[in-house]
Structures are given as structure tokens and as C-alpha cells.
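job 3f2a | input accepted
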Amino acid sequence: MKEKLIHLKTLLLAGLFVLLGLVLLVPLAIWTPAFAEKIAVDAPEFAYLQWPCTWFVWGSALPFYWALIEVLRICYRVVKGRSFSEGNARSFTAIGICAWIDTAAYVICLIVLWNLQAVSPPFLIAMAAVILFGITVGLAAEVVSQLLRRALELQTDAELTV
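job 3f2a | predicted structure (162 res):
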């Protein structure tokens, strides 16, 4: 019974991640260009940044979606009873790498926009939040990956002892 509950919760989690990925496609595809257009109209001195910034946002979504795929792989392995596996450790490492890539991209973007004097205080706060979130996810994924690897070592040692 307990195992079925874990399967159900894991499937629900996977479904929520799929829903999250689909829901975020709408702002990426529709709202991002519209928002960039509004900024270009409201602040014509920054109109030349409209498409580079839009492409940047679209490009920064690629590591995010790759991390979502890795989360779905983890959920699949958990449902199959392979919670503590090298595959899950590799997936968490990949999630961490995706977070670090996005974080680095946003830091570079912030530096470039700062040098172009195109950073407003609300934008700075939003960018800082994204960067802080990326650092947090990157570190958390690395810690979980190392914990999984350590658990695998202990499991292997226990199997060899018995």
C-alpha cells in the first residue's frame, strides 16, 4: 500500500511538472514578445534591445526545459523502484548544471544591460531574484546528487557485507 502511495505521489508530481512546462510556454511564446514590444514603445531609447532580450529569454528557457526533462526522468526511475540509482544522481547533476548555466547567463545579461544603462530598479530586483533562485537550485541539486552517490556507496557496501 505504501509503495502504491509513493507511485501515485510521484506520478502526480510528474504531471505537475509537465503542466508547469506547458503553462510557461504561453508567457514565453506570447507574452515575452508583447512585453518587449511594449517596452520598446514606452522607452524608445531601448527599442534596439527588444529582440536581443526576447531571444535571450527564449534561450534561457532551454536549460530550464532540459532540467524539467531530467526531473521527469527522476520521477520515472522512482516509479520503477530505482530511487537510489546512479541515473538519478546524474539527473540531479544535470539539473544543477542547467541552473548554473542559466545563472551565469543572467549575470552576464545583467552586466551587459548595466553597462548599456538599461537597468531599472524593478528590473534589477527581478534579475537578482532569478540569479539567487538559480544559485539555490544549482547548490541544492549538487547536494542531492552527492547524497545520492553516498547512499549508493553505502548500499553497495551493505550488499557486499551481507
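job 3f2a | Residues 2-42 form the longest helix (41 residues).
job 3f2a | closed
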